[in-house]
Amino acid sequence: MACPGTFSDEPLTPAGRLFLQSQTNIIIHCILRGKNPIDIDAVKSTLRSSLMVRHPRFCSLLVRDKNGFEHWRKAQVDIDQHVIVIDKRLDKSDNFLDESRRFSSEEGEGDDDDEAAVNQYVADLSVSSPLSTDKPLWEIHILVPHKCAVFRIHHALGDGISLMSMLMASCRRADDADALPRMVPEKSAEFKDGKGRDWFWLFGILWGFLKMVCFTVMFVMEFVVSSLLVCDRKTVISGGEGVELWPRKLATARFLLEDMRVVKKAIPNTTINDVLFGVVSSGLSRYLDHRTPNALHEGLRMTGVAMVNLRPQTGFQDLSQLMKGAAEARWESKEDG
């Protein structure tokens, strides 16, 4: 329920409204697994004192005005409504096991079977369980027998960097329970003094601006022409009517960071994100080739949409500064996407 007081409603960003549309309703699912049993009371106590429940987005309801526009409205957070506890063990089909099957399963079930059960639970959540607008748009599902927690956060609450900053600020290092995790070192911008700003420097600035304008016009024209005149070929990954209700399956793949670094060093001007993108592209290609032999012929066209934040972001945001409302620390939600 909304807090009493004089809090003004905060309108959603255009990207936030897009994430709430039925065709693009996006909920982020994050699975955390541990070695030790989960203490439910300790989890709730930690959440009550965490930065997350004090952040305006995580303690605000989604409301609509008389014109149908969405706003964030400050509300009291009831942790018990956001923490969903599952005490029974699940099988690979996301069914609860009875007591006799439960004990035999605990003795003979391996990590792979346990992981498959959790994956199927999350896959079913993504289809059958939308987040309720009667409370802030996040939940934590704790699967006690599987020693696992599933975070469900609506993408309208923030972009990837903002949400990762929140997660990192809520964690502590294993070797020091009072210390925050080490963040990615921020790269400070280097500016030349007045002596270095000669005609060549000015020419470089103008040339860069002209290239930006030319490429922008070119890409906009290409997008318009492609949207009007070119259609993608139907493939096994193409959507359709009611795609948001289609059954889903979640699988887990593990990649060693050291292996990805080896690939990164072998290719000039490459980042870890580039390597990961190549892995995803290769997996998609193999899946298409497996499901539709000879589908990867020359000229096959597939169009995807990815929202990108154009604001400069050097790394993880300092949540302590963000919570104080510092001008340079801004909570992002892909406003410029």
UniProtKB/TrEMBL annotation:
Pfam families per UniProt: WS_DGAT_cat
Organism whose genome encodes this protein: Theobroma cacao
The name of this protein is: diacylglycerol O-acyltransferase
Gene3D superfamilies the record matches: Chloramphenicol acetyltransferase-like domain
Q: Where is the chain membrane-spanning? A: 199-225
Q: What is its EC number?
A: 2.3.1.20
Pathway(s)? Glycerolipid metabolism; triacylglycerol biosynthesis; Lipid metabolism
O-acyltransferase WSD1-like N-terminal domain location is 127-183
